[in-house]
Amino acid sequence: MGIFLQFVVGGLFFGGMYTLIALGIVIIYKSTQVFNFAQGWMVTLGAFMLVTLVGKFGVVAGVIAGLAFGALLGLGIERLLMRPLIGQPLIAALLLTIMLAHVFEGINILAWGTFGYEMPVTLPGESIRLGEVVISHALLWGIGVALVAFAAFSFFYWRTLMGRVMRATAEDHQVAQSLGLPVRGVFSLSWVLAGMLSIIAGLFLGVVSGVHYLMYASLIGALAVVLLGGLDSIAGAIVGGMILGVLQALVRGYFSPALADVIPFIILLLILIIKPYGLFGLVRIERL
Amino acid sequence: MDRPAGVFDVRYEQDMAVVRTGPQWGVLIGFLILLAVLPLFAGSYFLGFMILTGIALIAVLGLNILTGYAGQISIGHQAFVAVGAYTTAVLMDSFHWNFWATVPLAGIAAAAVGVLFGLPSFRLKMLYLAMSTLAAQFIIIAFFNHAFPDYFHAVSGIRVNRPELAGIDFRNNEAFYYVVIVIAVLMTFFSKNLVRSRLGRAFVATRDNDLASEVIGINIARYKLYAFAIGCFYAGIAGALHATYYRSVNPMQFHLDASIWYLGCLIVGGMGTTVGAVFGVLFLRSIKELVVFVSPVLGGMVSPINAPKIGPALGIISWALVVILFLIFEPRGLAHTWDVLKSRFRHWPFKYAF
Predict the structure, then answer these.
(1) Do A81 and B317 count as a contact with CB atoms less than 8 A apart?
(2) CA dist B52 → A256, B217, B330 (Å)
(3) Residue A144 touches partner B, C-beta closer than 8 Å
(4) Parallel, antiparallel, or unpaired for β A133-135 and B164-165?
(5) ipTM, two decimals
């Protein structure tokens, strides 16, 4: 039982990280209809940037600078790469983010090399002892941050004016534009938010498992999370993330790590065959 | 369509011909002769480049049929190449088959796996289908990595010998070059003709508007599976050659990056044109080779600690960046540039070209 709980908490942490990445993808998809394949690579880049910035400016200033970098990164991608693609088939944008992921990977190798780093941040608090299980506080921080991010985005989308604007834009770009909504501003804002989310995910992942240029490999599973939860569902991101994180941890613990690595993709294939729009996704009916 | 002034078609055969005019025949035959005599004066390094280009070309031609013509975007093409490579390698290593007998089987095995992973395309398209092929990439490679260690030898890799035929030994690159080039040329012509047939037109209709094409009587589910079967058959053939060229097969060779590199070739060349696939592969392969030459020079300029990073980093950034630039500035790819050039040449000295 104890070991089971240990696995579940570890899984919830990874689920939380999946949630943060999936939230970034969902936010961008909701408003711009672009699927950001590169989100996991942005997390890796963000984690490396945090290692450097925190090492230079200390924890608080470093993390704030890191968030600013994430915002600039998102803004830059939107302005320089995504905006010229408006009007082209959506698949072009997907292909562009796939290629962008590789550019990020190359930049990571060029700037930080192929060896691992440790995130020079210690999170406040101490490990919790539950019976014979010791739960690291870093894991709880990660889970908590994912929950807070979910709550914040839910509030933002459903209770604030800007959230309403973003939902309206997601519904129909042209109608939103003709109603005078700042469509381009919404696009930029979504990318900025996704950029900052990738920094946050990079911070906690870096603290728990270190920073390495191959970090993205364990994050590709987040793509499965997004489709499991539904491409345009914020609740889906957290539910899907937690389900997949826990499932992966249990399979890793009880069966084999090799199987755990492909679990996201098996789930992905199953969900695509059974319920392509995901658990909470909006089913779009196509007409001629 | 666009042909030199004064060339008219008076028979249907002329209208349907791929090679239309005398000069075109001349250029084509000249090019084939050039390919044939290349080993006589090209160095071993350049032959290696040509062999790898030929293998990549076969794979990209398959992806072009699947993604460019039929519109079923695949992010897992290298996994189907892997299926072909493993079929050849296992049949030769564990069952002592003849290489030539394994080549068609490699194609058929890859086609079968492709159809299996193409089944979700009945319900899915675009992004969703792309994700299911991404899943195929990881599941297939994990399968080779962990299943049947007695046959797949994931840790040590499978050793593959180069073939022999009628007393000719294909172990050296000069001879193996002919194997690859002959297959590549044949498959290019097959691909060029396939997409002009009823099948190819059905693919294009499915790509451009699947609902409308279903309404006019195209069984799109069947044609999507045909596209997967043919596209993955190409991948399987490429895999068989890949295995014999490298003389060993291990799961590390079939990384996601290669699948995406194939997609990049397609974008740079221009999706949905056979000539585009050729241009795209040549262009990105040349960039790869250029990086091999340039990175030691750049490495010499920076500190010795940073020098080893330059090669791998540039190797990724260079082609990905080129593809991004093409997506933004020339989404129709080099095939379109080529058309514009031809049109300019024909209309010279007049300005109007398309």
Answers:
(1) no
(2) 36, 41, 26
(3) no
(4) unpaired
(5) 0.88
